[in-house]
Structure formats: structure tokens, C-alpha cells
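User: Can you predict the 3D structure of Ribosome-recycling factor? Sequence below.
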Amino acid sequence: MSEDFELDTDDLKRRMDGAMANLRTEFASLRTGRASASMLEPVQVEAYGQMTPINQVGTVNVPEPRMVTINVWDKGLVNKVEKAIRESGLGINPQMNGTIIMLPIPELNEERRRELGKVAGQYAEHARVAVRNVRRDGMDQIKKAKADGMSEDDQKFWETEVQELTDAYIKKVDQSLETKQEEIMQV
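Assistant: Sure. Here are the predicted C-alpha cells for Ribosome-recycling factor:
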């Protein structure tokens, strides 16, 4: 049995990539003082009886560095979109102009920048935990194979592989966090 054991490192990589993708999505929702259409991705609007992403009820544009506009397709949803943005916690005050909602992006003050930096740190920690959970799953598979007769040398080999993979992804998370914090603190 021990000769047949092959840890599915591709599966572990795929799951760790998923943790990184989730981190990038969470980071995109953090305002950095510059307008970005991606900052509205987590905002959902109650439309047609279900929760819908904003980009599915209107066109999101960034006409200038400190302005995001949403051209809502259905006039009946304009107030719901505006309410969803107000309640989203983005700290943006929407301005209405017919079916167009304008979102002026205010300058971030020092205190708000520090808060966003802490939030980014929390997002990164969630990603690290997700990567470590994948690592634990890999190690559990190795332990099970060891109980089924895997040699100690093979066990050490696979444990080293999993640990190196984990270390690489934790390093990616840390680099992403550092980049995002620099972006947030940039005036």
C-alpha cells in the first residue's frame, strides 16, 4: 500500500489558491481613497425578490479618480441600490441624479487608514487560517497513509512537501497584505 500513496498536491494547491482568490476579493472591497468599481462587488441589492450584485442591476463606471457612477437600468431599483450602498459600511454617501447614482470617494483621514489597515490584517489572517486548514488536511492524509503502512522516509518526504507548499502560500498572503497596507496608507 505504501508504494501506491500519492498525495494530491494539485488539490492542495487549488484549495490554497482559493484562499488567495478570496483574500484578493476581500482586499478589493477595501477603499484606498481611489475610486474602483471592484469596491462595490460585495454590495448586494434586493432586486426582483432576491439578493443581486450591483453590477447586475446597472452599469458601474469610474469616470474620474474620485468618483464611481452606477447607471441603474430599472428606475424602480434606484432607491434600493442607494439604500444598499448606504448600509454597506463603505462609508460613501450616494448622490442621486435620475437613474444615475454618483459615489464621490472622500479623502481618507489617518484614523480611517489605520482602521482599514487593521481590517486588511484580519482578512489576511483569515486567509492564513484557510491555508493552514488545507495543510492540516494534507497532513491528516499522510498520517492515515502512515497507519496503512507508509514508510517513515515517505512520510517525511510528503510532510516536507506539504509544509513547503504551506510556507509559500503564507508568504504570498503576507506579501499581499504588505502591498495592500502600503496602498491604504498612501496619501
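Strands lie at 44-47, 50-53, 58-64, 67-72, 95-97, 100-104. The first helix runs from residue 9 to 28.
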